[in-house]
């Protein structure tokens, strides 16, 4: 037992945890009961053999303070409350016997695992705030767990009253830094997540309150001097002493009240911090944002006895060291090609997975649900088959029921649990190509966002679909502001007959753009684009344009596309008729095991190549990615190639010998 305590004291993970047990004491205080500078209430839990475990206490709102113990060993304890270093109340006995099922989530290399060594592979969807009629966030956790999810991401947002330092509309609480109603809502969420088997990222801050340009809530912020606060500018949040003091009050309280719960995967310090004014409008102050992250991460770690992970999120990479102190990376993406964007991403420095993904625009009312189902599967399996620490996580929780997405999660849960994935942490992505007896139009979509394209030449039809993550959908002008980035897009293919390539253009910069197209070095098209060209009823995020059609002859064809306009044009995808297979694939492998996803319009017979497994006979389980149904088959692998029949339109093959 002494060894267990010693390991716990120096910050190492014990082999098991026991609890939780909460003790409550009536303690009278003067001043703000939430502010530890005025009222520092803690509890020492003393075991029968004299060992002590120190925990933070928190104000419950009714003249009482509470503390929750999860212990690295079972036993009976005496709980001694102290107020500002003086004994205030004693509770005895405190009996802690029940072991937590798995403990808490930590890191194992580039993956996650529980205290007891059980692997944890996050899969689920975001549930940022209450937005659905007749469904609270807590109820959303119950639904998510029922559907097979084990992960979510929840914001301390003020518009659904989950931000404890943000008063209700027209409400003022002088000197009071926190409020009980939001904290009680968090109690319900934590308890529901525990019962549902869901672990979530507790998003403590988000960008809107500290931005004047992106989803701005700065005008209503209670700390804004215009509202009687103390911050003149949102950029000062990251350096102002009073702002940091209040931030730490919130962090300390969150740890004190909720850290005992295994339903908390990680403390997420910020949602999409790249949008705050201190990063977007004042890039010279990004170092302040990085310093804030280091300070707050260190502070949380100094308080949390259960060593929860710490992260922060961004939809873009910040090169200023903002995330250096985080335990794992959490990017977000909304590209034309979700599979390529997520599947082609390499977490080089830290473990990571995509905490948000979605389409570049939002679904119109009455739109077909089918594209959402395909998109959700693309995000899930892109993360899995790229070897990330978790699946890609879908943002639009309000579409789960509307689009009937729940079964996709149950099916993916089955793939994760039964395919052998969790036993092959060293598996690597591999380029997989699929050939079919029939031909179809070849559609390729850009997977890159606002970044330099690293893929500027497509030699069709054989393209690793994950490599399209290197193709930025923002097609830069060779005459514009990013001309150092700009290169032509060259597309090469062979066609047995003449046809017309389709270029699908989305948004255009405010300055406009232009496309010039050459076919076999002959200029065949020159077209200007303006923002106002969107189809009637459209918007920059939802509008549509007529496709640009480019004729080509039979034989070997080289199409070169250039932009000589004022600025960028969003070139989302290209379609080349008749040169593609009726199915696509991507996969990963590890020694004598592989996991391959095959999907398309006709998967009745497919020939898969590109695997590096040795020749021989393999058994394979085929999972229907929509229903979770399975079938068994035997495949003969020769030089990385095999043929199989009768697959579901979206299938995952677990191959082993």
Topology:
Blueprint: H1 2-9, E1 18-26, E2 41-47, E3 52-56, E4 58-59, E5 64-71, E6 75-83, E7 86-96, E8 105-108, E9 111-114, E10 119-120, H2 137-146, E11 151-155, H3 180-196, E12 199-203, H4 241-258, E13 264-268, H5 277-280, H6 286-303, E14 309-311, E15 332-333, H7 338-343, E16 356-357, H8 370-385, H9 399-402, H10 406-418, E17 428-430, E18 433-435, E19 439-445, E20 457-459, E21 474-475, E22 489-495, E23 499-508, E24 513-519, E25 522-529, E26 548-552, E27 555-562, E28 569-581, E29 583-590, E30 593-600, E31 605-609, E32 616-624, E33 630-637, E34 642-645, E35 650-656
Parallel strand pairs: 11-12, 12-13, 13-14, 15-16, 20-22
Antiparallel strand pairs: 1-5, 2-3, 2-6, 4-5, 6-7, 8-9, 9-10, 17-29, 18-31, 19-28, 21-28, 22-27, 23-26, 23-28, 24-25, 24-27, 29-30, 30-35, 31-34, 32-33, 32-35
Summarize the structure.
The chain is 17% helix and 32% strand. With 657 residues, the chain is an alpha+beta fold. The strands form 9 sheets. A 6-stranded antiparallel sheet has the order 17-29-30-35-32-33. Strands 19, 21, 23, 26 and 28 form a 5-stranded antiparallel sheet that branches.
């Amino acid at each position: 037992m002494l060894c267990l305590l010693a390991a716990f004291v120096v910050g190492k993970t014990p082999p098991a945890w026991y609890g939780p047990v909460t003790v409550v004491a009536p303690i009278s205080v003067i001043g703000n009961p939430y502010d530890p500078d005025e009222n520092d209430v803690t509890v020492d839990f003393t075991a029968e053999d004299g060992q002590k475990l120190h925990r933070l206490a928190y104000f419950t709102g009714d003249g009482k303070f509470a503390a929750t113990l999860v212990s690295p060993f079972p036993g009976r304890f005496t709980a001694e409350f102290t107020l500002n270093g003086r004994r205030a109340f004693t509770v005895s006995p405190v009996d802690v016997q029940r072991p937590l099922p798995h403990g808490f989530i930590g890191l194992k290399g580039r993956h996650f695992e529980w205290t007891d060594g059980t692997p944890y592979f996050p899969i689920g969807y975001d549930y940022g705030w209450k937005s659905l009629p007749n469904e609270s966030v807590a109820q959303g956790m119950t639904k998510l767990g029922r559907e097979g999810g084990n992960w979510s991401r929840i914001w301390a947002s003020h518009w659904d009253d989950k931000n404890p330092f943000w008063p209700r509309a027209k409400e003022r609480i002088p000197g009071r830094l926190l409020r009980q109603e939001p904290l009680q809502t968090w109690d319900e969420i934590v308890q529901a997540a525990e019962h549902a088997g869901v672990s979530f990222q507790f998003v403590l801050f988000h960008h809107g309150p500290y931005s004047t340009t992106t989803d701005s809530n700065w005008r209503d912020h209670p700390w804004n001097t215009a509202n009687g606060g103390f911050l003149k500018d949102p950029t000062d949040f990251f350096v102002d002493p009073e702002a940091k003091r209040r931030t730490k009050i919130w962090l300390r309280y969150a740890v004190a009240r909720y850290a005992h719960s295994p339903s908390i995967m990680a403390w997420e310090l910020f949602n999409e911090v790249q949008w705050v004014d201190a990063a977007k409008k004042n890039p010279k102050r990004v170092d302040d944002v990085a310093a804030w992250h280091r300070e707050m991460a260190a502070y949380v770690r100094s308080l949390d006895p259960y060593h929860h992970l710490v992260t922060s999120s961004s939809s873009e990479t910040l090169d200023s060291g903002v995330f250096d102190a985080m335990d794992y990376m959490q990017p977000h993406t909304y590209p034309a090609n979700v599979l390529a964007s997520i599947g082609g991403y390499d977490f080089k420095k830290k473990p990571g997975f995509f905490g948000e993904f979605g389409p570049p625009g939002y679904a119109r009312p009455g739109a077909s649900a089918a594209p959402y189902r395909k998109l959700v599967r693309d995000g899930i399996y892109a993360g899995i088959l790229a070897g990330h620490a978790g699946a890609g996580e879908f943002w639009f929780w309000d579409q789960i029921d509307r689009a009937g997405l729940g079964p996709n999660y149950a099916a993916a849960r089955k793939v994760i649990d039964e395919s052998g994935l969790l036993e092959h942490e060293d598996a690597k992505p591999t380029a997989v190509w699929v050939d079919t007896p029939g031909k179809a139009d070849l559609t390729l979509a850009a997977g890159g966002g606002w970044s330099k394209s690293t893929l500027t030449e497509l030699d069709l039809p054989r393209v690793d679909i994950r490599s399209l993550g290197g193709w930025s959908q923002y097609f830069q002008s060779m005459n514009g502001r990013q001309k150092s980035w700009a290169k032509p897009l060259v597309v090469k293919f062979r066609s047995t007959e003449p046809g017309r390539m389709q270029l699908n253009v989305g948004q255009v910069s405010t300055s406009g753009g232009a496309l010039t197209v050459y076919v076999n070095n002959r200029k065949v098209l020159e077209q200007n684009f303006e923002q106002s060209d969107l189809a009637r009823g459209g918007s920059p995020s939802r509008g549509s344009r007529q496709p640009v059609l480019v004729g080509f002859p039979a034989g070997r064809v080289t199409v070169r596309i250039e932009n000589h306009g004022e600025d960028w044009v969003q070139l989302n995808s290209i379609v080349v008729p008749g040169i593609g297979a009726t199915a696509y694939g991507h996969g990963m492998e590890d020694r004598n095991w592989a996991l391959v996803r095959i999907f398309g319009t006709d998967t009745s017979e497919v020939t898969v190549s590109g695997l590096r497994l040795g020749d021989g006979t393999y058994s394979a389980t085929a999972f229907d990615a929509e229903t979770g149904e399975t079938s068994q088959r035997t495949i003969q692998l020769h030089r990385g190639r095999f043929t199989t029949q009768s697959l579901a339109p979206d299938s995952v093959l677990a191959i082993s010998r």
